[in-house]
Design goal:
Elements: E1 6-7, E2 10-13, H1 26-29, E3 39-42, E4 48-51, H2 54-62, E5 67-68, H3 92-100, H4 106-111, H5 113-128, E6 132-134, H6 135-140, H7 142-152, H8 159-171, H9 179-203, H10 211-215, E7 219-220, E8 223-224, H11 227-258, H12 260-268, H13 273-283, E9 290-293, E10 297-299, E11 302-304, E12 309-311, H14 314-318, H15 352-369, E13 374-375, E14 383-385, E15 389-391, E16 395-397
Parallel strand pairs: 2-3, 4-12
Antiparallel strand pairs: 1-2, 3-4, 5-9, 6-16, 7-8, 9-12, 10-11, 13-16, 14-15
Helix pairs in contact: 5-7, 5-15, 7-11, 8-9, 9-11, 11-12
């Protein structure tokens, strides 16, 4: 057997960035190999190191002194953009988190549950009597986007506009109209929209409590937050609010549509849904954060140079055989799951409490109204990757009147 190629002591491998021509789950299944390396160097793009063990990933995300968030995509070590607060390091990051934290508490997420449930019910009722539909475009993307608009203080009538921007910026791909050009145009339109909303919010003194109306009154080091920083914050909220829950729900429903036993368990015992959500979060760690190395170090036995990029794929952490028995198997009775699919350290997902409510309520209401469904025959399901693994489509069919 030929020894694997190595660079600076680490094996050379390939990281499966998902794209439209791959079958679903490509990004996750690459970590199901029994012989997977704890760390490897991939020559994809500019080259970067990939860590695959949960303990190493958790430590790396906590060590902001060694791994900077100024660059979060391993293929872009010197980005021209700065999303706040995701791309900040302490202590600057800490100031922003303190301002944002009161808006994303467990109590605040719980208080939104009735509104979230109402939104889910409206969307599902629009589909139930059709007998078929694309789960991604008709539910998964619309559901969290509507909640995002409410939190940002924006009218629901803007939903289609935001969904179009989201698709073009994060997932659009058309060979006759290069993605980067269309994405740049859409990003410009989004920025202009938010700039106008911020300007109006600065003039409004009626005491609104949405995120934008609250943020324009913030101060850092005694000075009002600059419009450019607020615009960066809004862009991040847009990205996080519209894409992550949609992607998580899509992979979850793909699995339930292809595993009658798991689906029936949820239908028969809705009380298992919170545990099921944690298990789906573990096995489908959709976010793949990158970091830039701040100094020459040896981390977990791997020599790293200042300025290099590393990847801490949460998909690998959730499928780590050192942490979970039979990790690729979905087991609702696994017990308390100590996954890190919301990240670790100071950048752990601020919206995790809200996301859990959205995921639980979405599954509850879907299975209450449409308990029996399957993948539509003869359809190709495509996946994408833009820092977050997701599905482009999920065509389902179900018997009308079966609820």
């Amino acid at each position: 057997m030929t020894a694997p190629e190595r660079t600076r002591g680490c094996p050379v491998g390939h990281y499966a960035w998902a794209s439209g021509d791959h079958p679903p789950m490509t990004g996750f299944r690459q970590f199901d190999r029994e012989d997977r390396e704890p760390v490897f160097y991939t020559t994809d793009a500019a080259g970067y190191h990939v860590f695959t063990e949960q303990e190493a990933i958790a430590e790396g995300m906590q060590r902001t002194d060694l791994f900077s968030s100024h660059a979060i995509e391993p293929i872009t070590p010197n980005p021209e953009y700065r999303w706040i607060p995701e791309m900040l390091d302490p202590p600057e990051h800490t100031q922003w988190r303190r301002l944002l934290a009161p808006m994303f508490t467990p109590a605040r997420a719980a208080a939104m549950e009735d509104d979230i449930r109402a939104q889910a019910t409206v969307l599902i009722d629009e589909l139930a009597n059709e007998g078929h539909g694309d789960f991604v475009s008709q539910f998964a993307r619309k559901y969290p986007a509507a909640i995002f608009l409410r939190m940002m203080g924006l009218p629901l009538s803007e939903l289609d506009k935001f969904l179009a921007w989201e698709y073009t910026i994060l997932h659009g791909n058309d060979e006759t109209d290069p993605r980067r050009e269309r994405a740049a145009q859409a990003m410009g339109e989004l920025a202009q929209y938010f700039a106008e909303v911020i300007a109006e919010a600065r003039k409004d003194d009626t005491g609104k409590t949405d995120i934008i109306s609250t943020a324009v009154r913030w101060e850092i080091d005694g000075a009002p937050v600059a419009d450019a920083d607020l615009l960066s914050l809004c862009t991040l909220m847009f990205d996080a609010g519209l894409d992550t829950v949609a992607a998580q729900l899509s992979f979850t429903m793909y699995t339930l549509a292809t595993d009658a036993g798991l689906r029936q368990r949820i239908v028969d015992d809705p009380a298992v849904i919170p545990s099921a959500v944690e298990e789906f979060l573990r096995v489908y760690g959709i976010v793949q954060p990158g970091r830039r190395v701040t100094e020459d170090i040896v981390f977990r036995g791997c020599p790293l140079k200042r300025g290099e990029m590393v990847l801490f794929p949460l998909a690998a952490a959730g499928r780590d055989p050192h942490q979970y028995e039979d990790p690729s198997t979905i087991d609702f009775d696994r017990g308390r799951v100590r996954h890190i699919s919301f990240g670790a350290g100071p950048h752990r997902c601020l919206g995790s409490h809200l996301a859990r409510v959205e995921l639980i309520v979405g599954l509850q209401e879907w299975h209450r109204r449409i308990p029996h469904y399957a993948l539509a025959a003869g359809q190709t399901i495509l996946e994408h990757h833009s820092g977050v693994y997701g599905l482009n489509n999920l065509p389902l069919t179900w018997p009308v009147g079966a609820a």
